[in-house]
Amino acid sequence: MIHELRIYRAAAGRLPDLLSRFETHTLKIWQKHGIRQAGFWTVAIGTSNQDLYYLLEWESLAERERKWNAFASDPEWLAVKAETEKNGAIVETLSNAILTPTSFSSVR
Known about the structure:
The chain is an alpha+beta fold and 108 residues long. Helix content is 38%, strand content 31%. A 4-stranded antiparallel beta sheet has the order 2-3-1-4. Helix 1 (15-33) packs antiparallel against helix 3. The longest helix has 19 residues, at 15-33. The termini are close together.
C-alpha cells in the first residue's frame, strides 16, 4: 500500500469553499474512479489554519497514475472545478508526497 500526502493551502478566506467542494462533489467523483481516501485534516494549531491535509491510498504508482489521470480529465470534475472557481482560485498552493512506511510503522 502506498500513501500520498497532499497539502492544500486555501486562498484567503476560501477554506470553507474548499472543504465544501470536497464534501459535496470531489469525494463522489473519486468514488466513481475508485480513489480511496485515508483521512482529511484541517489545522487547529500550527503555522496556517488555511491548510487542508489529506491522505490517499494506492495499491501502486501505476494505479495512482491511471486513476488520478482519469479523475483529472473527468468532465464532471472539470465542470465542478470551473463552477467553484468562477470567483477565483480556491487553492493557493498544493504540495504532495508519496510516502513510504518505515520498518516500525503501524501503517503499512
